Amino acid sequence: MHEMGIALEIIDIATASIPADLAGAKVARVNLQVGKLSAIVPDSLRFCFDIATKDTALEGAELVIDTRPVVAVCKGCGQRWTIDSPVFTCPECEGSDLILESGRELDITSIEIAEEEV
After folding, report:
1. Are 33 and 105 in contact (CB under 8 A)?
2. pTM of the model
3. Parallel, antiparallel, or unpaired for β 80-83 and 70-74?
């Protein structure tokens, strides 16, 4: 399960992103974009994240995953479409020379720091 390795990297990145003047701050939410071709199972990643954040600044943080579709553009005719089947050919000209615009993402889009309790 490679999701555990990814969860650990997310934790490292988020922890390093906490500003020095907010030492001791807790992370409330981590927002991700995950492409459908990234071979990541969102529920497995959330499970691993919840386990791996124990005793860290991210313990209890919400992991929000925005799943991105596979979008392609045909180099031959310029057709742009969302791929929702295992067939990677242009629906217009049936060409197979294409550019993937999205679907491979694995990006942290934002990290939200919890407000300090008074």
Report:
1. yes
2. 0.83
3. antiparallel
Q: How far is CA 113 from the centre of its chain?
A: 18
Mean pLDDT (whole number) for 60-70: 97
Alpha-carbon gap, residue 53 to 61, rounded angstroms: 8
| pLDDT at residue 99 tops 90 | yes
* Cβ pair 41, 3 in contact under 8 A: yes
Is the distance from CB of 60 to CB of 53 less than 8 angstroms?
A: yes
- Please tell me the distance from the alpha carbon of residue 54 to that of residue 82, in angstroms, as a whole number: 38
Residue 62's Cβ-side half-sphere holds a number of Cα atoms within 13 Å equal to 10
E strands in the chain: 27-35, 62-68, 70-74, 80-83, 98-102, 106-113
**Rg of the chain in Å (alpha carbons):** 18
Q: Give the integer Cα–Cα distance in Å for 70 and 92.
A: 17
Report the amino acid identity of residue 38.
Answer: S
